[in-house]
Amino acid sequence: MPPPRTRLDPEGYYDRLGLEPAAARAAIVAAYRAKARVLHPDVPVTGNAAAFVAVKQAYDVLSKPEQRDAYDRKARVAALDAIEPEVMVVRPAARPAAATPMRHPRFSDLPVMVWAGLGVFLCVCVYEAASHLLAPSPVAMADIRPNAASVEPLSPSAHQAVLYGPAPVRLAGNPNYYVIPAGSPAVVWRQDTEGKALVPLGQLPPFSAVQAVRLIRQTGMLEVLVNEKGNGLISADHLTPGNVAAARSAYCGYNAGPAPFDGELLERRGSGDGTLVLENRAVQPAVVKLRDATGAVVVSVFLGPNGHADLDGLPEGIYRPDFAIGELWSRACNVFAAGMRARRVKAELRMPGDSHLVVTPDPEMIAGADISDQAFGQN
Fold first, then answer.
1. What span, in angstroms and rounded, lies between the C-alpha atoms of 89 and 296?
2. At 304, is the secondary structure helix, strand, or coil?
3. Residue-by-residue DSSP string for 150-211
4. Under 8 Å CB-to-CB from 374, ≥6 apart: which residues?
5. What is the pTM of this model?
6. Angle CA(310)–CA(280)–CA(312) in degrees, nearest 5?
7. Which of 88, 106, 276, 287 is the most buried (most CB within 10 A)?
């Protein structure tokens, strides 16, 4: 059941998080974390993919000050426009009509034009029914060949179709919607040459990105760009608004997997005599990566809030540290699915030699430069 919409919450974003429109940002973050722990698809019994994606969509808007302000302004304007002055209409008292004898209506009382219209309607219904019954059975094509590059939501070492299903694709155009997980597949249809039947073109994996051009209200389907040869139709129930970045974020959150424990080694290559102590003094989880001269990750460690890890047996060499803080570490994407901020440390570490690295609550306190989520996710 979709969340109720009110004048101050037209899309139901606050209701999805169980909050009032006046809630503070800290309450929004806390509410999202609480619901993510319950609704994440990997949580037994309470996991719900569609509900998790809906909560994540609300969090993405309300957690960003600019988007939340725009949403609240739009809601206030809509609420003011909806207020109309009440007009009292005074009608003169009707004169009592003279009593007339009551007579039951008869079919013979209908005008000739009504009978003619009913006859034409019946003929059309018979023709359409016969056309559908005699039409050849549609043949589904194996897949859809997009003319745009595939979305790359996974790092090369993390992508395993057995674990996470088929990789999402990106169809033609500038995506403004993406496919959400559902009980039935997202089938793309096209109309046959006579425009009287729908023929399946193929299926889109969850979180595939598409550009929707219009909504067909009579059928509840969205027309989307497929490739240079034409468009297709997808049921609106399988799509939600969002660009490629939103689709990737939803994919990563959906495929987060089990939460890592404090000090868990997410990746490790090589061995030696190096030792390193890692501390996380931030209130959010953190992941620290050490990269060699080629940029390859030698070790990747998860640290919980105020977490600690003692590493030994690290191979000798000079390493460049990267770290990121955020919420909901995604094993499929090798990044945090929400609220992530990544930074590359300016100072290099030498093994053996340097033995201590601290993640501070304010990343800018560590000399370095911010990097993109994609750059941090690369192994």
1. 78
2. coil
3. PP--S-TTT--HHHH-SPP-B-SS---EEEPP-SS-EEEEEE-TTSSSEEEEEEE-TT-EE-
4. none
5. 0.56
6. 15
7. 287
Cα gap 104→275, rounded to integer Å: 99
pLDDT at 158: 43
The tokens describing 360, both together, are 């501070």
Angle of helix 25-39 relative to helix 49-62, nearest 10 degrees, comes to 170
- Confidence at residue 204, expressed as pLDDT on a 0 to 100 scale: 93
The DSSP code for 6 is B
- Other beta carbons within 10 Å of 180: 22
* Series of mean pLDDT values for 10-residue runs along the chain (379 residues): 63 89 89 88 84 90 90 83 53 53 65 83 87 63 54 46 78 92 88 80 92 87 86 91 91 88 89 87 91 90 91 87 91 88 87 80 81 86
Per-residue buried b or exposed e for 40-67, using 16+ beta carbons within 10 Å of the residue's own CB: bbeeeeeebbebbbbbbbbbbebbeeee
The length of the chain in residues reads 379
Give the H/E segment covering residue 275.
strand 274-280
Check residue 98 and give its pLDDT: 54
Q: Mind listing the domains of the chain with CATH numbers?
A: 13-81 (1.10.287.110), 161-254 (2.30.30.40), 265-377 (2.60.40)
Predicted pLDDT of residue 175: 93
Which structure tokens are listed for 120? 């034409």
- The enclosing H or E element of 113 equals helix 112-134
104: helix, strand or coil = coil
Residue 125, token pair as written in the block = 């219904």
Contact 222, 216 (CB under 8 A): yes
Cα–Cα dist 207/251, whole Å: 6
The string of pLDDT tens digits covering residues 77-124 is 877 776 655 444 445 555 555 555 666 666 667 787 887 888 899 888
Listed in sequence order, the residues at least 6 apart from 150 whose beta carbon sits closer than 8 Å to its beta carbon are: 167, 168, 169, 170
Rg of the Cα atoms in the chain: 29
Task: Report the first-to-last Cα separation within the chain, whole angstroms.
Answer: 41
